[in-house]
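Hi support team,

I submitted a single chain yesterday and got back a structure, but I'm not sure I'm reading the token output correctly. Could someone confirm the output below corresponds to the sequence I sent? I've pasted both exactly as they appear in my results page.

Thanks,
R.
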Amino acid sequence: MGLNAMEDEARGARRLKGNVVGPLGLAALAIGVMSPAIGLYACWGPIEAAAGPIAPLVFLAALAITLPTVLSYAALNRHAPSAGAAAAWLWTTVNPTTGLVAGLVTISYFTMGALTTPLLFGLFFRDLMEWAGAPLRGMAAVAIGVVLHSAIVAWISVRGAEASIKTTIRLMLIETGVVLALSATILMVKAGQPGGIHLGPFDPGRAAHGAGGFWAAVLLGMLAFTGFDVVAATAEEAKAPRAHVPRVLVLAVVGIALFWAANAWVLTLSTPPAKVADYNAQGLTAITSVARAYWGGGELIVIATGFTGLTAIYIGCVQGASRVIFALARHGLAPAPFARLEGARRVPRAAVLAVVGACAALALASLAVLGNGLDAFVWWSNAVVFFAAITFIGVNVANLIYFRRVAPEHFNVWLNLVAPVVGIGLSLYLIYAAFFSALWSQPFRTGRSVVIACLGLFALQLLIAAGTRLMRRHLFTAAGPIGVPQGASEAA
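Hi R., thanks for writing in. Yes, this is the structure output for that exact sequence:
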């Protein structure tokens, strides 16, 4: 048996536990990681502060930017589902070094997406302490919330994919019901006011801060969508991944976007734009103030679903980041402990705990540096979109090449040419307009510093990949770290 064959056999013996996540679980993971509630709780207020009372349009614009990439993910998952996702596809279609860079970028993307959640959890925890009249207030409450949330998510995540997704389904159903109830309450109140219900939030003419404000808002809208591709990293644990993963990706993204646009319309009707901007300037979560205005003491319900929604997102992002780390480590491209699977559920425990630990440490560090929980959340929110856009570009490139070189018999001009070309163009424009242009013109604290830090980290990842290729060349001659064999069963 040759060296490559022996390595392939060894990796096969270290596969994640398969056939445990069905289509409902995949849908719950995709919707849970985008979160029906948190996409609104976290982004609606900052979007309105940045662009004016046009939040529904911003969510729909973010959907238009995201959808071509979703189609590329769907096409690749139908033919080559992988725990390594972008890393595996680019390894195969471009070259191994590019695949490793994609893996490092994807890990940064999922980890930063996870990192935003304990920060927002800390803000809601502070609101809870103030509501309860507890002596724990301000930044101390936010920091304790970060640690508490990370500990809860670590405990859930190390129990395995099946347990994590069951938790996500329960949390998702609760938060969706609360959002719909709050929107229904607002509509009933506004229906009794002359002109209280109108379609103004869908009017581009109501944009308040020009193109710069709109693209800054789109950056936050893109944050709401980030993480949908965690489903791709779960392919190795899914039932019939080639059949279910593509469908779930498309339906979940479109469905959640329409949900956000509809409920963002209602929230925009609920409160004057000047008040929303004032809440953001004070570092307050606007949704809590809206709930207080319409539900009184019922704001506690919104705070509670803030906790549940953020937990679902955190779990999903940890799931995605840890599986990519595992796939690279199994290939010998990351430290060996991250490739170990523990227990009957075959959980990559070391990778899971590394992701959660990094999130907690970086969240606390950003609180200490910025001194404001909402500023820390916005800083990491802006950063994650850069690495998401780089990942999306990589997946679209892989789609273009895969169905020309590897599976030409399955080439489709719309799915494998038009969609990826549009996806690449939109992602590049997003990086230019919403990242470089909009952020570079903002204050250093939460604007320019994000650009500098992201470019520095990306340059470091390029150096790591080049150094690994130089020092461990033999690892780059093996097949890519594909997580699901081409012959895997497709039985439902």
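A quick pointer for reading it: The longest helix spans residues 96-132. Let us know if anything else looks off.

Best,
Support desk
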